[in-house]
Amino acid sequence: MKEWMTAQFWETLLDRTIAWSLSSLPAILLIAAIGLMGFKLVDVILDRIRRNIAGRLPTGDAIETQESEKRLETLLGILRSALRVVLWAMVVMLLLRRMGVDIAPLIAGAGIAGLAVGFGAQELVRDVISGFFMLMENQVRAGDIAVVNGVSGLVEQVGLRTIVLRDQSGTVHVFQNGKVNTLANMTKGWSAMVFDVAVAYRESTDRVIEAMKEAAESLRADDQWKSFILEPMEVFGVDGFGDSAVIIKARLKTVPSQQWAVGREYRRRLKQLFDARGIQIPFPQRTLHWAKDSTPPQKQE
After folding, report:
1. CA separation for the pair 257, 130 (Å, rounded)
2. 176: containing domain
3. Which strand ranges, in their side-by-side order, compose the sheet holding 191-199?
4. Angle in degrees, 0-180, between the axes of helices 103-120 and 122-136, rounded to the nearest 10
5. Sequence-ordered list of residues with C-beta below 8 angstroms from that of 49, at least 6 positions apart, any chain
6. Are residues 37 and 85 in the same domain?
7. Local confidence band at 264 (pLDDT 50, 70, 90 cut-offs)
8. Residue predicted with more confidence, 44 or 76
9. Contacts of 25 (CB under 8 A, 6+ apart)
10. Are residues 159 and 198 in the same domain?
11. CA 27 to the chain's CA centroid
12. Separation of alpha carbons 239 and 249, rounded Å
């Protein structure tokens, strides 16, 4: 008869299990409980730090306060992730040691393995270094709208290794920090909407500019929109001559990420004002010139 089929085997196994439960299980449960408390404590401490720092931010400039809060949330998110990794490592090592596993060879082996992996993880090191300087220089924060390597969208997460971007269609793009070749932040400090207004050649440009400024001022006077607009409209003047239109360039400065909503409402009001004053928005047209010594073609019956 096999050994595991005997009653003595099961009695011995039961005795050892009970002995282990009485001697080691309480310590394991205590370590696990302390680990969970540690994770909760990290969240509480970081939340208190966030509230204390946020309470000391200057309240005079709303935009500056919002920018500081974005940077604070990004840095605290990375710090929270790093502390959780450290806590997990400590809890796992304590649990292994309590269960009778000698962790000294594991630590030594991890060091050698880490050295070996380090030679092959040069790309990871480059990502981490790039992400570190990106955060220290405050180039981009979670909540910004940015263009990364030609892809525009909302920055959902900024880490030491990657940037997570969600575009307008909802697609999530993940970029390694070391492979970010171009980064354009569209909502840092302030934003702006640039308008290229095309009008017919017969229109007076001074009259058109006056209408553009009037539409902008009506938008700034509206309670729903005035908090989004930082300055009066800047009209740069005639910017070019098209095939059938004169192009007038202007700009409206807005609070971060509100330039598109302000731009849509401004265009709606400007179209209504152009219609009311008879200012023509051009359409493709062509002028034909006949030579003096030629006769126009005869209409064929």
Report:
1. 26
2. 138-185
3. 191-199, 246-254, 234-241
4. 80
5. 76
6. yes
7. very high
8. 44
9. none
10. no
11. 44
12. 6
In the chain, at which residue ranges do the beta strands (DSSP E only) sit?
A: 145-148, 151-158, 162-166, 172-176, 183-185, 191-199, 234-241, 246-254
For residue 50, being part of any structural domain is answered with yes
**How many CB atoms are located within 10 Å of the residue 262 CB?**
22
Q: In a 3-state reduction of DSSP, which class is residue 225?
A: coil
Residues 156 and 252 in one domain: no
Look up tokens 């400024």; give the residue. 213
Of 50-64, 151-165, 187-201, 278-292, the poorest mean pLDDT is in: 50-64
Instruction: Kindly report which listed range (65-69, 205-209, 292-296) carries the lowest average pLDDT score.
Output: 292-296
Pick from 84, 190, 98: which is nearest to 144 by CA? Answer: 190
In a domain, residue 132? The reply is: no
Mean pLDDT rounded to a whole number for the chain: 80
Parallel, antiparallel, or unpaired for β 234-241 and 183-185?
Answer: unpaired
Other beta carbons within 10 angstroms of residue 189's beta carbon come to 11
pLDDT tens digits, one per residue of 35-60: 888 888 888 888 887 777 766 666 55
The pLDDT score that the predictor gives to residue 94 is: 78
The three-class DSSP label of residue 249 is strand
**Phi, psi values for residue 12, rounded to 5°:** -65, -45
| Spatial distance between the Cα atoms of 12 and 164, rounded to a whole number of angstroms | 55
What digits encode the pLDDT tens for the residues 116-158? Answer: 555 556 777 788 888 888 877 788 888 889 999 999 999 988 8
pLDDT at 109: 62
- CA distance readout (Å), 217 to 24, 111, 209: 75, 66, 12
How many folded domains does the chain comprise? 3
**144 within 8 A of 186, measured Cβ to Cβ:** yes
What six digits make up the tokens of 170?
């909802």
